[in-house]
From TrEMBL, chain A:
GO terms for molecular function: nucleotide binding. The keyword Nucleotide-binding applies. Keywords: Molybdenum cofactor biosynthesis, Nucleotide-binding. InterPro entries: Beta-grasp_dom_sf, MoaD_arc-typ, MOCS2A, Mopterin_synth/thiamin_S_b, ThiS/MoaD-like. This is Molybdopterin synthase sulfur carrier subunit.
TrEMBL record, chain B:
Belongs to the MoaE family. PANTHER family: MOLYBDOPTERIN SYNTHASE RELATED (PTHR23404). This is Molybdopterin synthase catalytic subunit. It comes from the Bacteria.
Amino acid sequence: MNSPVSVLLFGITRDLTGQSLLSMSVDQEARVQDLLDQLYQHYPKLADIKSLLVAVNGEYAERDHLLTSKDEIALIPPVSGG
Amino acid sequence: MIAITTEPIDVASALQNLQTEQAGAIDLFLGVVRDNTKKRPVDRLEYEAYDRMAISEMQKIADEAHRQWPILRYTIIHRTGTLRTGELAVLIGIASAHRADAFEACRYIIDTIKQTVPIWKKEIFTDGEVWVNAHP
């Protein structure tokens, strides 16, 4: 069974994919790392980014964090505020 | 007070919000758009934020600063959108009884914002553009 998740993209990740919101289909019980692997497959250029973090529901998430279809997921490329 | 805004940052009203009779020191840090990066002329900066998370991360930083220093009032305002040379990108204001705490808390807040808060800037040069920090 697959479940749909949506992913917000900012900064360089938006430029590299040409999208600010992606709808992805991930396996049930998928973790952050599984989603990243899928994204890298679709958008190999994302691998050029120095470091890519993932936020789930507005909090930084570890690679083994379990995803659900209700989550608000965001890719967080290296920040550069200030 | 913590805010993300597309409007120009109003320093006078931020200062007014920081003033309190117990405060003997108010420290203001202003981050300003510079006209060059390593001598390459900058035309403008484009800032964007994941607003919801940026606010909550800034709140965490302010809470931590509160734990470490006796802060009376604080203000953190970050601007987003297109900014020209000389415009303010960020304002950090700290009011405390004595100056050492205000200086230290202010520095802690701006340094940590640069590390953890999901805000991004793209430098637009006269001959190209780059997302800051994004590439090795």
